[in-house]
Amino acid sequence: MPDSDSLPATLRLCVRRTPLRGPEGSRVEVSLRVPSDVACVEEVVDLVVRHCCRGEWTAARRFRFNLRVAVAEALANAIVAGNGEDCSKSVLVHAELLQDQIRVSVTDEGPGFDFTSLREMTEPPDLEDSNGRGLFLIRHLVDDVYFNSQGNSICMTLRRH
Amino acid sequence: MGFALTKAPSGVCRVSVEGQLIVGNRQELKTVIQDAVDKGDRKFLIDFSQTGYIDSSGLGALVSLSKKVRERGGELRLAGLNEDLRSLFELTKLDTLFAIADTPEQALAGF
After folding, report:
1. In angstroms, what CA-CA distances link B19 with A42, A53, A74, A100, A112?
2. What is the pLDDT of residues B39-84, one digit of tens each?
């Protein structure tokens, strides 16, 4: 038997639904433990959307598009920049559907980074750089974004409009 | 999902992005285009008519490919972006870097 610590991590999903009083349906919480493998990004994005996009206001095409891109960005940052694609490390994704918002946090096992040093990259010569647009996109696609003090956990909120 | 390249008699190489262009598959697209450049192809059209979403890695791959193609005297055009996809290019001002046509047919005209 191989040592379980040496096995590649697998994607783990936990979904909890709590009925709410009134016509608002239920609160949904989705927790995922994601291996540090960029091949998982699309599946995780699909799982978050499938479980959290319930109710009329989450059906708007642009809302779902922004959610998909923001989660994909945050997860890619966590896997590549945070965990350095180290297969012994995981990324935790926690997504919540509340009455009027979806909140997604993505936490890696890396040392964190300086999230205050954000370049816009919308002018030459930065425009021709192939990296560095991830956080810029997130900040423009979601309503609120903040990091923990260590810089290894991002929390994004998309509100009902 | 792969990136199939088809070459028209006019010499334009067309690649359709079906699904997503993100961190997990951008390298495949880069390889397909780079191989064609190495074989002497110079005109490329990336068709996004069947694309769901693109992340910053996908945008970065397009920037880097466009640069490589231009350095060899060629051109890379984009087409078929829906309103959501186009908004990403506008936000990042990458719409100023690429020739973006509404449809593949419009992009092919005069290429």
Report:
1. 10, 19, 19, 29, 31
2. 999 999 999 999 999 999 999 999 999 999 999 999 999 999 999 9
Beta strand pairing status for B43-47 and B75-79? parallel
Note the pTM of the prediction, 2 decimals.
0.92
- A 10 A CB-CB count for A100 gives 11
Cα B77 to Cα B81: distance, rounded to the nearest angstrom: 12
Instruction: Tell me what the pLDDT averaged over chain B comes to.
Output: 95
Of A41, A130, A133, which is closest to B22 when you measure between CB atoms?
A41
Q: Is B97 within 8 Å of chain A by CB?
A: yes
pLDDT digits (tens, 9 = 90+) for A141-150: 999 999 999 9
Contact A158, A70 (CB under 8 A): yes
Reported confidence tier of residue A125, pLDDT bands at 50, 70, 90: confident
| Beta-strand relationship, A101-107 and B12-16 | unpaired
C-alpha distances in Å from residue A60, one per residue of A57, A79, A95, B52, B57 = 6, 29, 18, 15, 25
| Residue of A133, A135, A136, A139 best to disrupt the B interface, most CBs of B under 10 A | A133
Pick the more confident residue, A130 or B24. Answer: B24
CA pair distance A7, A16, nearest whole angstrom: 28
pLDDT beyond 70 at A7: no
Q: What type of residue is A106?
A: V
Instruction: Determine contact: B5 vs chain A, CB below 8 A.
Output: no
CB contact under 8 A, A136 and B56: yes
